[in-house]
Amino acid sequence: MRIAVEGCCHGELDKIYETLEHLQKKEGFKVDMLLCCGDFQAVRNESDLCCMAVPPKYRNMQTFYKYYSGEKKAPVLTIFIGGNHEATNHLWELPYGGWVAPNIYYMGYSGVVTFGGIRIAGLSGIYKSHDYHKGHFERPPYDNGTVRSAYHIRSVDVFKLKLLTGPIDIFVSHDWPLGVYHHGNVEELYRYKDYLRAEIEANTLGSPPAAELMSLLKPKYWFSAHMHAKFPALVPHNCSDGVKFTKFLALDKCLPRRQFLQVVDFGPTDAPSELFYDPEWLAITQLTDALNNGTSCVTVLPNFEEASNFKIDKEAIIKEAFQKFGNPPKVPDNFVLTSPPFNSLETSKTKMQQVLPIINPQTEAFCTKLGIKNPCYSEEQSMQAYGNPEVIELSDEGNDEDDDDTNDYFNKPGEFKGLDIDEEADDKNDDDVTECESSSEKLVKTIRRPHLELPKPTNSCVENVTSIMPQTVVEKSNWVMSEQTKDTCTTLEPQRKVMKLKRRNQSIYVSSDNTEDSDES
User: Fold this and answer.
1) Rounded to an integer, what distance in angstroms lies between the CA atom of residue 224 and that of residue 434?
2) Are 224 and 172 in contact (CB under 8 A)?
3) Cβ distance 313 to 493 under 8 Å?
4) Nearest CA to 125 among 82, 172, 79?
5) CB burial class (10 A; 0-12, 13-18, 19+) of residue 354?
6) DSSP code at position 512
7) CA Rg, the chain, in Å?
8) In the Cβ-directed half-sphere of 84, how many Cα atoms lie within 13 Å?
9) Residue ranges of E strands in 140-271
């Protein structure tokens, strides 16, 4: 069983497959699977380009759309995780994973699959502390802030991976686990990436949650990308039966004379070369369904003692998963087009246009079969599909405005509505960008609303305030007017000019002033 590992893909599928074919002919062996470590860029069309957190000059179509449309087919099974440069709206359709093209599989926010007897776990995105404890509240269409925060990993996805009990052969993450550089030749790394020296010496480079998972799960191999450098390391783990090691390898991006591809030989196997769901992961996904949080509020996770309750009936749930998905539970070949593929012969008419949310039939079928809620549904759609949960709501007097019909923001496969966006992506490094308030009223309306809402401010100068106040994300997508803001609004409101009259002329205007005051009252 030979598995090829790719660093950052950046949409260069043609070049990667050509390199892989050349390598197989040169070495005289066959690769069974290709594993990509993020920045895959599954861009189907120009609308997807608008949902990538990259400066406009890097919004190139590349070659994925050919495999999505069926013009080409991946010559080898390709599995990938998400990075920080993705078609966010496309991957949003598949929170639990699924096919983005024939023979190309996305692992979701986090996931576990098996292929040829090899158990593979993955975590999409990169770590940012300010978003880590939030829910997956971002949804298309995105603004300049949510298009970035959407690829930040969340605590609930890490929590689910911590519940795994069986051995892991391969773990895939985009950014490096924190501290992994201490177990390799860091001086060699400085030769190519000297700007990393300060972070490495301060031990701040990398993902703390990924480091926790490496220490807990102790996988045989761990593959990463993100830093655009090849870096091997051997990470030790103290176990009851002795010291075990995780073989860590980070790879470069797909460019000439770069070390972006590595083939790992796992030896012979009797298991079928097919893609299967992991039974334990199916059980964990079903057990943790209630922990999913679709808002920007903090996700409340069980403590250590409560987490043990998630393992009590796991065996029974695994048996149930076998009944629903088969034994072994094979991943169904149910790829469908949900957005029109790019046509290079047509003139571009959607240069700066995002499509509205689309429910992917793969996610709907998976959730229905497993008996869990589809996280892509809006709150109103969830109530219609699963019933209205019992909640305690505060009275919302004074807010007579009806909620927006979120069904208008969803498209069925084959129906493609658009929303024009004029703002361009920030040219700064997206790792340095935090959050910003939407500049479009339509974008604000699409963010999921919690059960408890404040009435919208009626002050007419709110739009003026946004131009003079710092750009920050306001909880629940509603303006909370502080005292300072109120004072600012008061000064911005148009004031009636008061005329100062000389004493000898006051008598002329007495009747006119009285009449005006009576009209205003």
Assistant:
1) 23
2) yes
3) no
4) 82
5) buried
6) H
7) 27
8) 21
9) 170-173, 221-224, 231-239, 242-250, 261-265
Nearest one of 259, 244, 250 to 232, comparing CA atoms: 250
Beta-bridge partner residues of 475:
none
* Chain-centre distance for alpha carbon 493: 41
Q: Is 206 left (phi over 0), alpha (psi -120 to 50) or beta?
A: left
Do 224 and 203 form a contact (C-beta atoms < 8 A)? no
Closest CA to 86 of 44, 119, 115: 44
Single-letter amino acid, residue 154: R
From the list 109, 84, 77, the residue with the least C-alpha distance to 4 is 77
Q: In 314-433, at which residue ranges do the beta strands (DSSP E only) sit?
A: 353-355, 418-420
Could you give the CA distance from residue 216 to residue 271 in angstroms, rounded to a whole number?
A: 27
Report whether pLDDT(440) > 50.
no
Please report the pLDDT score of residue 312 as a whole number: 57
Contacts of 267 (CB under 8 A, 6+ apart): 1
**What pLDDT does residue 91 have?**
97
Tell me which H or E stretch contains 341.
none
8 A C-beta contact, residue 254 and residue 6: yes
- C-alpha 35/C-alpha 261 separation (Å) is 10
Tell me how crowded residue 439 is: count the other CB atoms within 10 A of its CB: 16
Segment 51-64, tens digit of pLDDT: 999 888 888 899 99
In this prediction, residue 150 carries a pLDDT of 96
> By CB neighbour count within 10 A (0-12 exposed, 13-18 middle, 19+ buried), where does 292 fall?
middle
- Which residue is associated with the tokens 């002050």? 459
The closest alpha carbon to 288, from 276, 274, 275, 300, belongs to: 300
